[in-house]
Amino acid sequence: MDPVEELRRRGGIARTRTLIAAGVSAYALRQAKAAGAVIRPRNGWVALRDDPTLAQLTAERGVLLSCVTLARARGLWVPDARGVHVAAPPHGSRISVPEGAVVHWAKPVVPRDPDAVEDDLRNALALIAQCQPFETALVIWESALNKGLVDRQALARLPLPAAAAAVLERARPFADSGLETIFIHRLGWLRLPMLPQAWVLGRRVDLLIGERLVIQIDGATHTGAQRTRDIEHDALLKLRGYHVLRFSYEQIMEHWEQVQAIVMEAIAQGLHLPQQ
Fold first, then answer.
1. Sequence-separated (6 or more) residues with CB below 8 Å from residue 121
2. Rounded to an integer, what distance in angstroms lies between the CA atom of residue 174 and that of residue 172?
3. In 3D, which of 71, 77, 137 has the Cα closest to residue 85?
4. Burial of residue 169, with CB atoms counted within 10 A of its CB: 0-12 exposed, 13-18 middle, 19 or more buried
5. Are 86 and 103 in contact, with CB atoms under 8 Å apart?
6. Cβ pair 166, 141 in contact under 8 A
């Protein structure tokens, strides 16, 4: 069996013993190393020379990609988080960690595969709840739930730390983007019904507050044909007695006070209430 092909199939890095158990011969591995196609980033591990990934770095150092770094790699909605976050065994103080990395030494909620260079997503979410502000953690958890990468009921049965249990209690799978999660979280003090991804007049709206106040959040994709459809639907909503407020990413993330003031004014005018 070709060790290079087997390494590619496994993501570019694996334990030596795992490859041998899969059918790669020790001779083939030696030949691949001699040819320069395979390197040994850490004792007991081999990796493709032409694939200098973060996973190789973690294998070299004896840690796993985790927390927000893993969440971003899995395509979750992650607000700006700098640096590489890795997980290490709770008692792994002798491990050499990457310079500038954020290292999490906490005990995992799910046992870690000894061959893995990336943490289990459930472990990463638990670390995120302890590492990040509550709002950021909630955004990432709801993104994972929305994408179906984790199951809420199954998470509830795990021995979650207190911070993770608190995030899970609030997290729901309905928000289609992190901006929707942020919007609902920041206006939660209003104690009003807020329904993300509500179906209104034949299309989904980002958020429905009360009975008639529609919140639409414009991302980078709100251009061209989609923008035209949005305008048409806005007009239909207004003709049927709904009130539509549109906000951009920049407004929500950079000028939240102004956004909140507009929403509060709309609520003060009763625009969220049923028509009389």
1. 70, 71, 74, 144, 149, 150
2. 6
3. 71
4. exposed
5. yes
6. no
State the residue for tokens 């993770």: 164
**276 residues of the chain, pLDDT tens digit each:** 888 888 877 667 777 888 888 889 888 888 888 888 888 777 777 888 765 555 556 665 668 889 998 898 788 999 876 778 889 887 765 666 666 788 898 899 999 887 777 899 999 999 999 999 999 999 999 999 999 999 999 999 999 999 999 999 999 998 888 999 999 999 999 999 999 999 999 899 999 999 999 999 987 555 667 778 888 999 999 999 999 999 998 999 999 999 999 999 999 999 999 987
Determine the length of the chain. 276
The structure's pTM equals: 0.77
